[in-house]
Amino acid sequence: MKHPVLDDASRKMDKGVGAFEKELTRVRTGRATPALLDGIMVDYYGSQMPINQVASISVPESRMLLIQPWDANVLPELEKAILKSELGLTPTSDGKVIRVSIPPLTEERRKELVKLVNKMAEEARVAIRNVRRDYMERLKKMKKDKEISEDDMYKMQDELQKITDSHIKDIDKIREDKEKEIMEF
Known about the structure:
By secondary structure, the protein is an alpha+beta fold. It has helices at residues 4-24, 75-84, 107-144, 150-183, and strands at 41-44, 47-50, 55-61, 64-69, 91-93, 98-101.
């Protein structure tokens, strides 16, 4: 039984899964990816700008990022911002571009990252369950206000539970894939 309320709940849960995926791109694995630098802000003539708005970032090889600023004057600021970030990366500059080599992760660091990913996954699952709870309440209110019958309410609650289970399964799959990526050498 499809109903706009269920579609709405599903859309909200989709956003939760999407936010979790986006958040995971910032968790460092042994591989280089431009998303690694998301969230790093650079002082650009007095205002804070995301790094990808002042330079192009490419991946010439699996453990290397190449950062090419559009304005050479911002090079020292880029280096400073990368060094200050919590990524533990050391940029090297030749005056035109910055190279950032991604060191392989230690076993201990991999385990820490897996714990972090699991914590993030649990937060995402809680967010999905909160959406379910809100919509369960909404369905009860709709029944109370006689917008839907009791039978319809129970059918829609079952459907809502199925939608919730499906989204939780998506989060678990994404978490599992990220864990594999972190643990591979």
